[in-house]
Design a protein that fits this description.
- The structure is a homodimer.
- The first copy, chain A, has helices spanning 8-18, 26-33, 42-54, 98-104, 123-131; strands spanning 59-62, 68-71, 78-82, 88-91, 109-122.
- Chain A is α+β, with helices and mostly antiparallel strands.
- Chain A folds into 2 domains: 1-75, Winged helix-like DNA-binding domain superfamily/Winged helix DNA-binding domain (Arc Repressor Mutant, subunit A), CATH 1.10.10; 76-132, 2-Layer Sandwich (Dna Ligase, domain 1), CATH 3.30.1490.
- Chain A has a 3-stranded mixed β-sheet.
- In chain A, helix 1 packs across helix 2 (26-33), helix 1 packs across helix 3 and helix 2 crosses helix 3.
- The radius of gyration of chain A is 18 Å and the shape is flat.
- The model of chain A has no long low-confidence stretch (mean pLDDT 96).
- At the A-B interface, strand 3, helix 4, strand 5 and helix 5 of A face strand 3, helix 4, strand 5 and helix 5 of B.
- Strand 5 (109-122) of chain A pairs antiparallel with strand 5 of chain B.
- The first copy, chain A, binds a DNA duplex through residues 2-10, 25-27, 39-44, 46-48, 50, 66-68.
Chain lengths: 132, 132
Amino acid sequence: MAALKHSRQREMIKEFLMTRKDHPTADIVYMNVRQQNPTISLGTVYRNLTLLADIGEIARLRVGDGVDHFDADTSPHYHFVCTECGAVIDLEMDSIESITELAGANFDGHIAGHVTYFYGTCGSCTRSQKLS
Amino acid sequence: MAALKHSRQREMIKEFLMTRKDHPTADIVYMNVRQQNPTISLGTVYRNLTLLADIGEIARLRVGDGVDHFDADTSPHYHFVCTECGAVIDLEMDSIESITELAGANFDGHIAGHVTYFYGTCGSCTRSQKLS
DNA sequence: TTCCTTGCAAATCGTTTGCATAATG
DNA sequence: CATTATGCAAACGATTTGCAAGGAA
């Protein structure tokens, strides 16, 4: 259980993440944080994102596009991914926690939770499709 | 819309996949199909798995372990992933299709579907944990 | 003969890691 | 001082791709 020391880089990364609601990737975090600290390395960004996710201070999102996204909002909520523009958007919806019980009903083993995300076309992509 | 020609390799890959219910990865498909055709290449396996998934003859599964799994069963059903042994298992459960409507209720855009998988410990891993 | 498919190897891409140095407690 | 964190670059693992040769329609 390593004894976590404070680091300016980690702080910057977490702070940047808290200003964004669009679930940036490691690379986007890197490009942005680099504007305040031009010598920060991509490795450091990855290391800290992984560390923060491991201790539960941020969430790592996998939405099928092959790149991890990160979210400073660790409260339970679901995401939508636009298949047109790739945007990852928070959804406000009623709880669907009950699906975990449904899944466990006929299952020999223990179900701890589920991963779910929704996909389709976001508002602006839907509108531009209608024009064409 | 390329005019798809018959290929022995593609046939072997699909046939192998149909014999398995454990959702093998590309590498496992490769190792197995190679026993019947030792000169088949990994690239060919990847190309055909991607092609078959694109035309809907098989399904590509992403369950968060960083490796794609493939499933010859394209009927709608859900999967469970064991966090201990990595097994990917079919679940028999009631439909949860309704969550797509729930998600769309307050959403500006069009939700086409969702991706969901469950995780926890499978039957045998649950039992061996109890022993220790 | 057209053009889809293969085998092979090299290339990509996101992410991780080893190492020497710097920063923290 | 003991240890954790950093920057850099090299290494990784899964997957994709360019290319010349082979096979199907």
